[in-house]
Amino acid sequence: MDFVEALGQRMGEIADACTACGKCFTACPMTEAVGIHAADPTGVLQGMIDLLRGGDGTEEAVRWGAACSSSGLCVDACDYGVDPRLLVRLANYAHGQRRDRQTVKLNAMKSFRAMAKTVRVVSRLQLPKREIERLQPAGPSQKPQVRPDVALYTGCNIHKTPHILILCLDVLERIGASYQIIGGTSACCGINQFRAGDGETSGRAGLSTLSQIQEVGAETKVSWCPSCQSQFDEIIIPSYEKITQDRSFSLQPFYEYLEERLELLRPHFTRVVNKTVALNERPGLPGVTRAVKNILSAIPGVKLVELDVPRVGLMSNYLTVTPRFKEELREKEFRAAAEAGVTTLATVFHACHRELCHFEKDVSFEIINVMEIIGESMGLHADDIYKRIKMMDGIDRMIDECSDMIAEHGLDPDEARDILLADQIAAKPVQGAVMERV
């Protein structure tokens, strides 16, 4: 059995198990945003089942699959042991497979290459070569002779906000945990290819990365990226188990790893961090949210504030398919944070940080990552160069700021300009939460 066959079996099993009751559709926060909330829930689920079985589905089913933001709010709605989030993901994959095979593979390749180029350029606009090397997977001559405590799978896109990864490594070192990094574009989880409907390439990439993580030999296998975590948990690992009958592999989210070692962390929280903090929460991995709150609650001086706002998506970029909805949610959160008088809106994940950090100049509170708060209490610091660049007015200033790194890494200035400009276009002023900084 290969990966595609294993996926096909799982699609059939889910199609057989689903009763099309429609409760998951009713629980989904995306249906109104894409204009299908008035559809018959049972009919939509029947369309999803048809997609899983190789059929055309229905217009509403196809739109629902394309709009899934992996919030996971549907999971608890099912009374029949089906994972609705996985059902929707697999139905969307099945729909993608119906396209011409060469077109599917070409789209998958373009998506991955565009991501890889952006990661490479954006990371190198911020850090010199010696610091970039610290964040890369170890080469054969650099691998530790002794088995490390942790195999740390970073994924790709955290390298766009390298200060977060630097702090992760610094915290591991402070608590005495040895580690080996696996990640970057040479260790892909296969999610871009999977979304395009290219199961063959997705499986090859994901299973190769799984092998790389296994080869480290670490007892604890930890991941940073929630996209990678969900891709492994829902797609790669179950297919691997079907192929090999080996059920020993698992990945643990980084914050959950830290939560389990909170007693090791506590003695290092030596500095009072006087911040009133609201989290930019995402519901897709509830264990991570719990872990973050427990860790921050252990830091002297930190006061956590709960905002009464909708929680949607695995990360902010998962809402890109509904830009107006994403903007509305962001403005609601910013307005609630301002009204609550928080000093800090803390992003949990890297993609959320990329999409929110530059709005700091428009609101009354700072926007930083959770790892920065943890680091501050431990006396650790890493400059958020990404935010500094993104908050600048005008592409010329941004390029000038990065000129030394462009020269050191031999980057193409025009390519760097195009990537920064595309990134900066996403920055729009916030209408409802602008206040004077106090």
TrEMBL record:
| Residue ranges of every copy of the 4Fe-4S ferredoxin-type domain listed in the record | 9-39
Q: Report whether Metal-binding shows up as a keyword of the record.
A: yes
Top-level taxon in the UniProt lineage: Bacteria
Question: Which PROSITE patterns does the annotation name?
Answer: 4FE4S_FER_1, 4FE4S_FER_2
Which GO molecular function annotation, any one, does this entry have? Answer: oxidoreductase activity
**Pfam families noted in UniProt:** CCG, Fer4_8
One Gene Ontology cellular component term attached to this UniProt record is:
plasma membrane
Name of the molecule in the record:
(Fe-S)-binding protein
Q: Which InterPro entries match?
A: 4Fe4S_Fe-S-bd, 4Fe4S_Fe_S_CS, Cys_rich_dom, HdrC_iron-sulfur_subunit, Helical_ferredxn
Q: Any idea which UniProt keywords this protein has?
A: 4Fe-4S, Iron, Iron-sulfur, Metal-binding, Oxidoreductase
SUPFAM superfamilies per the UniProt record, alphabetical = alpha-helical ferredoxin
Q: Which Gene3D superfamilies match?
A: Alpha-helical ferredoxin (1.10.1060.10)
Q: Which PANTHER family would you find in this protein's record?
A: IRON-SULFUR-BINDING OXIDOREDUCTASE FADF-RELATED (PTHR43255:SF1), IRON-SULFUR-BINDING OXIDOREDUCTASE FADF-RELATED-RELATED (PTHR43255)
